[in-house]
Write the C-alpha cells for this entry.
Amino acid sequence: MAAGEHEFRAVNSQDVYAGRVMALRVDDVAMPGGSVAAREVIEHPGAVAVAAVDSDERIVLIHQYRHPVGRRLWELPAGLLDVDGEAPELTAARELAEEAGLAAARWSTLVDVAASPGFTDEVVRVFLARELSTVDRGEIVDDEESDLVVRRVPMREAMSMVLGGEIVNSSSVAGVLAAHAVLTGAVDPRPADAPWRDRPHRWAARRRSR
C-alpha cells in the first residue's frame, strides 16, 4: 500500500472519563504494517469565537482568567457549543451578547481552528461580526465571566499583540490575523452558515445518550 492510503481505524475504544466539558477515551488504532497503537483522545463539544470589529476597525477583546495556564489572557469573545441543536452562528451571537454586551448585523465565517489535533477533537469556528450595537449582557453568573474586562483595540495594536506574544489563545491568534486579512481586502470570508467538516460530534452524542 502506498504512503497516504492506509485507513487509520479504531479496532477498540475504551471510555476513561466523562466530565462537564470534556471526555477522555483511549482508542486502539490500526497502524501501517499491521501493528496497533493506543491513542488517547480528549472529546470536546467544540466552540465558537467572535472577531467583532466596529466601524473604526477596532476589534473587541476580553481579558479573562484561564486556570490551566494560571493567568488572565487577552482573547476574542468565545463559548462552547453546549446547547443541543443550536446553530454555531447563533451560539456566537449569544456569546457576543453575554460576554461583550454587543450584537452584530453582519456575520461571516473566518477560520476553523483545530486546537491540538494530536490529542483532542476540539475545533473552534471563528466568526467575523460587523455593524455592532450595544445590548444588555443579562445576568452575569458568579464565575470567571464576572471578572471579564472588555476592550476595543485598534486592529494594528491587536496584530502587534499577536506577534508580540500578548495574545496566545490559538483561535484568537487565528481570528485576529484572519480578520485583518479580510478587512484589508486580501481575502473574502465564507458565509456564516458555511459547511463545517471538522465540527466535533462525539461529545454531543455522548451527552445525548446519558
Remarks:
- The chain has a mean pLDDT of 94.
- The first helix runs from residue 88 to 100.
- The chain has four helices and eleven strands.
- Residues 111 and 126 are 5 Å apart (CA to CA).
